[in-house]
Amino acid sequence: MTDHDRVEAILNGQAPDRIPWIPRLQVWYTAHNRRGTLPARLRGLSLREAERALGMGDPARDGRVVRSEQGGDVDIRRTEEGDTLLTTYRTPVGTVSTLHRHTTEQKDLGLGSLEIEHMIKSEADIPVVEYLMRNTRYEPTYEEFEQYAAQVGEEGFPLVSAGDCPFHLFLQKLCGYQQGYYLRADVPQAVDRLLGVMEEMDREFLWPLLAASPARLILHGVHFDSTLTPPNLFERYITPYYRDLSNLLHEHGKSLCMHADNDSRLILSHIEAAGFDMAETFTTAPQVSCTLEEARQAWGERVIIWGGLPSVLLEPAYPPEAFEHHMRTLLRTIAPGGAFILGVADNIMPGAMLERLERVAEMVTEWGTYPIDPGSIPEP
Where does residue 55 rank: exposed (0-12), middle (13-18), buried (19+ CB within 10 A)? Predict the structure, then answer.
C-alpha cells in the first residue's frame, strides 16, 4: 500500500498494511537548509525528497478548496516598520487594527509572524469586526485543489485547512484569550451577537463550499484545550457547531478533522461528541497531561489519532532509553493499530536528532505491520 492508500483505508474504517509514518518535517528541514546544516545525505534534496529519504509520507497540508476576501466598504492599509506589520481596517462603522511581529528566528524556521495586538481590543471594536465578517466573501478553489492533489499523488492524502469555529476564533485570533473572556463576562450580549453573525456566515457561505468540494479530509478547528476551552464552554459554544458541520460533511462522504496540539485530557469525550473523525498532531505526555492510553480508552478506534510522538522526545536532552521506551509503549498501546497515523506533535523541531527520526522509521518497519502484536515488541 502507498501512504495515500493507508490513510484512505483508515478514513474508511479499514486496516492498512502497516502504521503510516507521516510527521511534519518542514520546520526542521527549512531551518537546517537555510543554516547550511542539513546532514550530508540530505543536502541538495527538496523537502519531499528528504521526507522520502527518511521513510516518511507527505503530510500534504497545503491544499485549499476555499478562498476568502474582504468585501464591503473597507480600506485596508499595511505599514511595515522593522520586524512589525501594522494592518488597519477602516470601515463605515469604525476602525480596527492588528499588529504582527516577524522575528529573524521565525523567518529562519520558515514560520509565520506572531500577532501581538489583536483586532478586538475593547467593546467598541466588536461592531467593526461584525461589519468585516458580514462582508467577507468566499469562493471555491476546486481546480487548484485538484492540481495539488495530483501533485501529492500516492505519497500522502491531502488535508484541507478550513478555519476555526466562531467561539474559538473569537478567543484565539480576534481578541486573545484573556481579553476574549473579559469581554464575554462584561458584554455577553455583544459577544454573542458577533458569534451569531460569524456562525451565520459560516453556515450560509463556507459550509456548502466545503461539502461540495473534491476534498475528502477537512481540517476545521484548532488548538482546543482543556483549560482554554473547558468542558462547559465546549458543550455550549463548540459542540453544536461541529455536530451540524460534521453531519453535513458525512452526508457528502467527507471526514472532519481538528488540529490537536494541545492538552485534550478533559475534553476527549466532547471532541467525539462534536463529531470529529480525526485529531491531527495529537499531543500527549510529557508535553501535556493527556496520555495516549487515556485517548485510546476514551475514543477506541472511533476517532482517528494522527500524532502521538511528542517532539521533545526527538531532542538530545531526552535520554535515548526514554525515547526507546516511549516508542515501544506507543506501539503496544495502539495495538492492533487501527485508526492511527504516527506523527510528531506538533512539528519536528530543528533540534531533533536525525538518528531518532531514522529509528522511528525502523520501528515502524519492524513492529508496525498490521495487526500489531504487542508481544513481539521487546522491552527496551
Answer: middle
Query: Contact 118/174 with Cβ under 8 angstroms?
Result: yes
Q: Give the cell for residue 181.
A: 473572556
CB count within 10 Å of CB 241 equals 22
372 secondary structure, DSSP code: P
Please, how many CA atoms are within 13 Å of residue 71, restricted to the half-sphere of its CB?
9
Euclidean distance between CA atoms 311 and 325, whole angstroms = 15
DSSP symbol at 18 = B
CA–CA–CA angle 237, 259, 278 (5° rounding): 90
**Would you say 291 and 248 are in contact if contact means Cβ atoms under 8 Å apart?**
no
Sign of the dihedral through C-alpha 227, 232, 238, 243: positive
Which pLDDT value is given to residue 226?
98
> 3-68+135-376, what's its fold?
TIM Barrel (3.20.20)
What letters, b where the CB count within 10 A reaches 16 and e where it falls short, cover 59-88?
bbbebbbbeeeeeeeeeeeeeeeeebbebe
d(CA 304, CA 343): 12
DSSP 3-state of 360: helix
DSSP string for 306-338: EEEEEGGGGSTTS-HHHHHHHHHHHHHHHTT-T
Length reported for the chain: 380
E-strand spans in the chain? 66-70, 75-81, 84-91, 94-101, 114-117, 136-140, 159-161, 217-222, 255-259, 278-282, 304-310, 340-345
DSSP, collapsed to helix, strand or coil, labels residue 305 as strand
In angstroms, the first-to-last Cα distance of the chain is 29
Question: Has this prediction a pTM greater than 0.85?
Answer: yes
Q: Which amino acid is at 97?
A: S
Residue 138 cell numbers, joined? 468566499
Q: Where are the domains of the chain?
A: 3-68+135-376, 72-120
Distance (Å, rounded) from C-alpha 249 to C-alpha 242? Answer: 10
Query: Averaged in consecutive runs of 10 residues, what is the pLDDT profile of the chain (380 residues)?
Result: 98 97 97 95 98 98 97 98 96 98 86 94 98 98 98 98 98 98 98 98 98 98 98 98 98 98 98 98 98 98 98 97 96 97 97 98 98 91
